Amino acid sequence: MVMWREMLLLVIFLVFVVQQICATHEQEHSMDCPTSSCGKITNISRPFRLKRDPIHCGDSKYELDCENNVTVLYLFSGKYHVQAINYNNFTIRVVDPGVEEPSCSSLPRYFLSESNFSDGYFIDVVAPYLSYQYQSHQSGPEWNSLWKHIIYLNCSHPVSEKNKYVNTAPCVKWQSKGYMYATAADYLTAAELKVGCGVKLVSLTSWWGLDANESSYTDMNRALLYGFEMSWLHFACDHQCRKSSDDECSFNTSTLKLQCAPLCQDKFGILLVRCGTGIWSQLLAYPQCKDCVS
Ligand SMILES: *[C@@H]1O[C@H](CO)[C@@H](O)[C@H](O)[C@H]1NC(C)=O
Ligand SMILES: *[C@@H]1O[C@H](CO)[C@@H](O)[C@H](O)[C@H]1NC(C)=O
Ligand SMILES: *[C@@H]1O[C@H](CO)[C@@H](O)[C@H](O)[C@H]1NC(C)=O
Ligand SMILES: *[C@@H]1O[C@H](CO)[C@@H](O)[C@H](O)[C@H]1NC(C)=O
Ligand SMILES: *[C@@H]1O[C@H](CO)[C@@H](O)[C@H](O)[C@H]1NC(C)=O
Ligand SMILES: *[C@@H]1O[C@H](CO)[C@@H](O)[C@H](O)[C@H]1NC(C)=O
Ligand SMILES: *[C@@H]1O[C@H](CO)[C@@H](O)[C@H](O)[C@H]1NC(C)=O
Questions:
Q1: Is the pLDDT at 287 greater than 80, yes or no?
Q2: Ligand 3 in reach of 188 Cβ (< 6 A)
Q3: For residues 237-269, b (16+ Cβ closer than 10 Å) or e, as one string?
Q4: Which of 141, 184, 286, 291 could form a disulfide with 136 if both were Cys (CB 3.0 to 4.6 A apart)?
């Protein structure tokens, strides 16, 4: 009697196990994960994934979350709102949630600059997001910065260069004493700082309309609202260039496609360099942050 019951349990157990194995097998074979959607970002696909997507979809380094119908990206100690994922040029554009209020009095919530992304000298190729994109132009490949810094300064005296240092006064109400300015700069360099001024806050923008000399503070606020782009090109490169370690991968700005070019040994046989060039010309092509403040 007891035997029968145990046999039955065993059979039920085995059927369950076989079903489980088949189910996971099926999941693994359905490599084409459906694209995910959250709020206005309707096309979330590889390498990106949403937190609650099936485990085999996307890459965990590129995980996004969906909070109250907004796609969010956790970046360092901050939480940014995703504005666009560009699969055409391998960038993602995010905005600091602090500037999203519809008034120019809103300020970025986080202090974020180039130095959060790298040590300021060489590019960290294992990080999921880079501040530069390796692009091939007519003149040859180079690292192109994807953003400008918006630097908020508090100064003990008024600053006269009104084109460069824009008064935030009509918009922003600061707690501290002194004269508050905002300026747009490529790097956070000592040269950008005036004597008697301190850096209050730094944020980023990829809105190139600020290139003009006569930006108002409203322009800067609009630029922050546009957000900043980061590159995930190196992820795409690892999957597209076959022998990724022996290939140089860049974004061809004419064809708007990834381009894999073979690398050759330099004349001392130590390093891999672009074929037909010397090692020094290539090292010099790396972006460097001179006189960095922090
Ligand atoms: C989520 O956002 C999308 C796009 O902005 C909108 O169409 C949809 O109605 C929103 N859903 C909810 C539940 O708020
Ligand atoms: C979504 O992204 C994939 C690439 O991952 C692309 O092939 C497809 O055309 C995109 N769809 C839309 C609606 O943008
Ligand atoms: C960026 O680095 C600065 C200085 O180390 C730090 O105070 C700030 O919190 C970092 N930003 C984010 C978003 O983690
Ligand atoms: C990437 O593509 C988006 C959408 O087409 C565009 O707005 C953005 O400027 C491009 N970024 C770069 C670095 O080419
Ligand atoms: C971009 O690609 C085109 C077509 O493959 C090629 O002719 C051109 O030389 C490439 N541009 C650069 C700067 O490498
Ligand atoms: C800038 O603000 C800080 C903190 O509020 C204050 O300690 C400092 O004295 C200010 N600097 C100037 C130059 O006003
Ligand atoms: C900005 O102003 C400087 C001097 O005030 C001038 O040399 C430069 O050409 C101007 N740049 C633009 C883009 O107008």
A1: no
A2: no
A3: beeebeeeeebbbbbebeeeebbeeebeebeee
A4: 141
Nearest ligand to the CA atom of 163:
7
Evaluate: CB of 116 within 6 angstroms of ligand 3: yes
Between residues 41 and 288, the one the model is more confident about: 41
64: its two tokens = 């996004």
Core vs surface per residue 74-103: b (16+ CB within 10 A) or e: ebeebbbbbbebeeebbbbbbbbbebeeee
> Taking 80 as the threshold, does the pLDDT of residue 219 lie above it?
yes
User: Could you tell me the two tokens for 14?
Assistant: 């085995």
Whose Cα sits closest to atom 3 in ligand 4? 86
pTM over 0.90: no
pLDDT of residue 24: 45
The residue extents of the domains of the chain are 241-284
CA-based nearest residue to 126, from 43, 210, 237? 237
Q: Is 97 in the pocket of ligand 3 (CB under 6 A)?
A: no
* 119 pLDDT above the threshold of 60: no
In 3D space, the residue among 166, 170, 140 whose CA is nearest the CA of residue 152 turns out to be 166
185: its two tokens:
């700069």
Ligand number, closest to the Cα atom of 116 = 3
| Radius of gyration in angstroms for the set of CA atoms belonging to the chain, rounded to a whole number | 25
Which residue has the least CA distance to atom 13 on ligand 2?
A: 43
* H-type alpha helices, 152-207: none
CA of 178 to the centre of ligand 3 (A): 24
Strand pairing partners for 205?
148
What's the rounded Cα separation, in Å, for the pair 272 and 279?
8
Protein residue with least CA distance to atom 2, ligand 2 = 43
Of the listed ligands, the closest to the CA of 93 is 4
